[in-house]
Amino acid sequence: MSYAAFRSIGAYVPEKILSNEDLSTMVDTSDEWITKRTGIKERHIAAETEFTSDMGVKAAELAIERSGVAKKDIDMVVCATISPDYFCMPSTATIMSTKLGLNNVTAFDISAACTGFVYILSIAKAFIESGMKKNVLIIGAEKLSAITDYTDRGTCILFGDGAGAAMICATDKKEEAIIDVHTGADGEYADLLMTPNGGSGSAHDAKVDDALKQEANSCFMQMKGNETFKVAVRTLTKDVVEILNENKIQSDEIKHFVPHQANYRIIKAVGDALKLKEEQVVLTVAKYGNTSGASIPMAINDIYESGRLQKGELMLLDAFGGGLTWGSALVPFSPNK
Ligand code: COA
User: Fold this and answer.
1) What are the extents of the domains in the chain?
2) N or C: which terminus of the chain carries fewer CB neighbours within 10 A?
3) Cα 149 to ligand 1 centre (Å)
4) What is the pTM for the complete model shown?
5) Which candidate in 79, 114, 156, 169 is catalytic?
6) CA 164 to ligand 1 centroid distance, Å
7) Tens of pLDDT, residues 47-90
């Protein structure tokens, strides 16, 4: 049987910074409020002509190079995004495949919001373990600034742009294998986090608040922040406890806990519930904000590039997002060298 190994990581962060001070000139907010409630100090914003696919390609080039896999041997590209270059079609994965010079691949996007990277990790693992694919490029890329309402202080303070990518490759060494990936969803909470307009039925959906329908022509994100916060803490903690128990792994065996970077208070609450030490918890929320499907691979890239992530070390990924969706994964870092 083939196992799936997490071989490499790469990320791209756009140049322009949008600080809390900048936002306080745009909406009624302050650096103090944003820092205290979210832990975010700044986020990066893509240039107008920089698409989600452009960012994804830059992250992917790094991941491919670091994996040592030849481009001709990559047989699948999967992208997690809620801010694709084009809604519906073509998929951002197909656009990126062509920009990367990958001409003989299966390519598609998935929509699982901030849990997207954990979902595409599970897809890569399943395709490799079944023997259908050998080298899968997974990319989380988001230009959330394109779907953010910069007049809504409840959401515009949270989100940023960026991309992260990883190569997931077949291996026969069990010790290199991704141990487990959990994914879950519950549409009952769909209205907590959504882009209520722009879809085929949304404007007529009885479940969508009248207040949310007002922005009739926008594809902006809308969020019930406080309710989302509570469900996030509950769901993230429950999922991690389950994946650790099922795999008989203690929390002190985790070298790097890499949660979705939505809000420092959410991460702290989950970390405390699991009794994790500060040095186990990876934090990038202060400098990138919430980059949805890109947030986990961007955080992994941060510890990789700063020399903190070493071969064989166990990562625990944990995510939560619109849908609602959630997921977690136990992943040893398994570079070739
Ligand atoms: N600046 C200043 N005041 C703000 C504000 C801002 N940017 N945003 C909201 N407020 C105000 C509200 O209007 C409210 O004022 P009121 O008490 O006079 O009515 C007050 O702050 C409290 O609002 P509330 O929404 O209860 O704040 P909160 O502590 O829940 O923090 C979030 C708001 C959005 C930061 C927080 O709910 C959150 O992070 N939620 C989870 C979001 C998330 O992670 N989403 C993605 C999941 S993948």
Assistant:
1) 1-337
2) C
3) 15
4) 0.95
5) 114
6) 27
7) 999 999 999 999 999 999 999 999 999 999 999 999 999 988 99
